[in-house]
């Protein structure tokens, strides 16, 4: 039973997933700080107060929903323009480089190598 648990933990994809979760959490903090500390105050400076939590539509407190909606749109835009678009550019560049470089010629079979060595020896003797 412990061997199976050890094998499970040592699988590469489990470690990769753990690293992805940790990096994702740290990246989430960076994006939330970008939205909360940089972009939301800029939006507030341009259009008034960025906090809509006091807004009500009759008895329905719709302001928190609008705050969450604005936050979602800003986070999605930040991720798209700061992560997705640059990564697509890098992937295109790497793909072009891979296509531009011709593949190396296949290595000749052993018989061809042996015949070339024999030819070189015969040329030396002649």
The helix/strand order is HHHH
The secondary structure category is: mainly alpha
Residue share in helix:
over 70%
Computed Rg: 30 Å
> Could you tell me the mean pLDDT?
83
Q: Give the overall shape, derived from the CA principal axes.
A: elongated
CATH architecture: Orthogonal Bundle
Largest sheet: number of strands, sense, barrel closure = none
Report on the structure:
The protein has a single domain (2-125), classed as Non-ribosomal Peptide Synthetase Peptidyl Carrier Protein, Chain A. It contains 4 helices and no strands. It has helices at residues 2-10, 12-47, 63-100, 110-125. The radius of gyration is 30 Å and the shape is elongated. The mean pLDDT is 83. The chain crosses the membrane at residues 12-31, 65-85. It comes from Thermus tengchongensis. Homopentamer. Keywords: Cell membrane, Ion channel, Ion transport, Membrane, Transmembrane, Transmembrane helix, Transport.
Summarize the structure.
Homopentamer. By secondary structure, this protein is mostly helical. Helix content is 79%, strand content 0%.
Please give the structural blueprint:
Elements: H1 2-10, H2 12-47, H3 63-100, H4 110-125
Main location: membrane
Family: Belongs to the MscL family.
Pfam families: MscL
């Amino acid at each position: 039973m412990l061997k199976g648990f050890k094998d499970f933990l040592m699988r590469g994809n489990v470690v990769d997933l753990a690293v992805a979760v940790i990096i994702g959490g740290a990246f989430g903090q960076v994006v939330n700080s970008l939205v909360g500390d940089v972009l939301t105050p800029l939006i507030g400076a341009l259009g008034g107060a960025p906090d809509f939590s006091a807004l009500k539509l009759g008895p329905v407190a719709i302001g928190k929903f609008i705050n969450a909606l604005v936050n979602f749109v800003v986070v999605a835009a930040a991720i798209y323009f700061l992560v997705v678009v640059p990564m697509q550019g890098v992937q295109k560049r790497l793909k072009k480089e891979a296509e531009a470089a011709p593949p190396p010629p296949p290595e000749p079979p052993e018989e061809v190598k042996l015949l070339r060595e024999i030819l070189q020896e015969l040329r030396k003797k002649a």
